[in-house]
Amino acid sequence: MKILVGIKRVVDYNVRVRVKPDGSGVATEGVKMSINPFDEIALEEALRIKERGAASEVVVATIGPADCQQQLRTALAMGADRALHVQTDAAIEPLTGARVLLALVKREQPGLVILGKQAIDDDNNQTGQMLAALWQRPQATFASKVELKDGRATVTREVDAGLETIEVDLPAVITTDLRLNEPRYVKLPDIMKAKKKPLETLAPADLGVTPGTQVKVVRCDPPAQRQKGVMVKDAQELVAALKKKGLL
Amino acid sequence: MSKVLIVAEHDGSRLNPSTAKCVSCARGIAGAQIAIAVLSADGAQLAAQAAQIAGTTRVLRVDHAANAHALAATWAPQVAALAADFTHVFGPSTTFGKDLMPRVAALLGAPQLSDIMAVESATRFRRPVYAGNAILTVDVTATQIAGTVRVASFEAAPGGGSAPVESRTLDVELPSHTRFVSVSSAATGRPDLQTASRVVSGGRALGSADNFKILYSLADKLGAGVGASRAAVDAGYAPNDMQVGQTGKIIAPELYIAIGISGAIQHLTGIKDARTIVAINKDGEAPIFEVADFGLVGDLFSIVPELEKLIGTR
């Protein structure tokens, strides 16, 4: 079985993002970029499945500008076997991303697709579900545990009520939550080896997809700031203050 | 004219308050007709509750044995079939809506707006990105859109309505490739985090699952729900359904008491709509104090029991 993993290049999660003064977006010039953390978890899960002998190949794919090759190389260094880069400078909305991934799925015929549940830049949480819909296959979102057996996946999902378990027939789309695994660190020899692994570049048009825009950003603002309040010296003063506000 | 379809979230017998919050959001679209879709195994009770939400024009009841559990693969084609002549299809931005709505959107070929926090017109909305560090105002150019509603941004629409209920039978093929197995939740008897008016949360400084007991005890005195930071959940001190923050629950209680929580940005994202924030932490430099209305520096293990005692003597 082949596993396809989608990754996205995003502003590193440690960067404190700043809204540009002209309100056109978030400053990304000179900012550290990384693989979206949820996607790293997706790749780690695919690699573990392969290491258990339940998969034969892990293919990693991304959509975006030329710079995204850095993140694909990192993914190859983590252990992916080969990479697909759908190169475009166009803004990619989730539905377009799902259409591109569907075209890759048709080409690669994976038995399983694993994606992060959301990218930490746009926070959309849509692409996996949309791919599953277009592919007419099951989705198991927000996974914290995945077990594969006899052409089926039993997936534990982190939901508001607690933990839900569902069973899906393969092929299927799984999206990862934080506690599914802890991704491995990349070692230097693996980075050298990754340089020799195959990385194929495609255009959206090669896959029959034309990126369009259905949602236009009018403005980007910083969030409203909360006012810093007062410090109290002990529990007694705190209770008195809360009572005064009618909160106790 | 705008026609909004809202997908009701429920547990089989009671509507989740997120549904009435979606109605509030939809009422922000001038002149919108608002319908609520109730999918369930037997929706008599649920449809009656939906009909009472003020601002609702009609309730579409779809009963089917396969709807006993909210599996996105099963529900999405039904919602898409109902949505054919609607301009907007909304669900709550809870794990239920986050799972379901993009699948509906893709079936409709429509874009989705996630976490709608404000409505400026039928085609202009505001939503957070980068864990709430930036707020986008967006225009939708598509004729039909799907959306998830950030429930912490809207008050629940009041009751008192009496919308007509229409039973619908849909000619939709339902997949058998996805099956519900089980759900496990630590039924605590405490108020639900996302609707509680008071919430007490603990962080890594609690040190163990056992030490969380002092929070449960304080919370019970306050009639509060109990939350936890991601660090505390990752450390195994609290179950995942207690996580408050960007990737956990986004909450807006009247009173939020953060205990031993430093205030990582992703946690602050989940609480910034709280009316009053109290922070108790031994580190006076902790970022949580930047957003707290009342801050107290000290040892939580002596402060929390003292607070409980003081509240008890009111």
Please specify the SSE layout and strand pairing.
The complex is a heterodimer of chains A (248) and B (314).
Chain A: E1 2-6, E2 9-11, E3 33-35, H1 37-51, E4 57-64, H2 69-78, E5 82-87, H3 94-108, E6 112-116, H4 127-135, E7 139-149, E8 152-159, E9 162-169, E10 172-176, H5 188-194, E11 199-202, E12 215-221, E13 230-232, H6 235-244
Parallel strand pairs in A: 1-4, 1-6, 4-5, 5-11, 6-10, 7-10
Antiparallel strand pairs in A: 2-3, 7-8, 8-9
Chain B: E1 3-7, H1 18-27, E2 33-40, H2 44-51, E3 58-63, H3 72-82, E4 88-92, H4 95-108, E5 112-116, E6 118-119, E7 124-129, E8 134-140, E9 145-149, E10 165-167, E11 178-184, E12 198-202, H5 213-222, E13 225-228, H6 230-234, E14 255-259, H7 265-271, E15 276-281, H8 288-291, E16 294-297, H9 300-312
Parallel strand pairs in B: 1-2, 1-4, 2-3, 3-10, 4-9, 5-9, 12-13, 12-14, 14-15, 15-16
Antiparallel strand pairs in B: 6-7, 7-8
Helix pairs in contact in B: 3-4, 5-9
Describe the structure.
The complex is a heterodimer of chains A (248) and B (314). Chain A is an alpha/beta fold. Chain A has helices at residues 37-51, 69-78, 94-108, 127-135, 188-194, 235-244, and strands at residues 2-6, 9-11, 33-35, 57-64, 82-87, 112-116, 139-149, 152-159, 162-169, 172-176, 199-202, 215-221, 230-232. In chain A, strand 4, helix 2 (69-78) and strand 5 form a beta-alpha-beta unit. In chain A, helix 2 (69-78) packs across helix 5 (188-194) and helix 3 (94-108) packs across helix 4. The mean pLDDT of chain A is 96. Chain B folds into 2 domains: 3-167, Rossmann fold (3-Layer(aba) Sandwich), CATH 3.40.50; 198-312, TPP-binding domain (Rossmann fold, 3-Layer(aba) Sandwich). In chain B, the strands form 3 sheets. Chain B has a 7-stranded parallel β-sheet, sandwiched between helices. A 5-stranded parallel β-sheet of chain B has the order 13-12-14-15-16. In chain B, strands 6-7-8 form a 3-stranded antiparallel β-sheet, with no helix packed on it. The radius of gyration of chain B is 21 Å and the shape is globular. The termini of chain B are far apart. The mean pLDDT of chain B is 95. Strand 13 (230-232) of chain A pairs parallel with strand 16 of chain B.
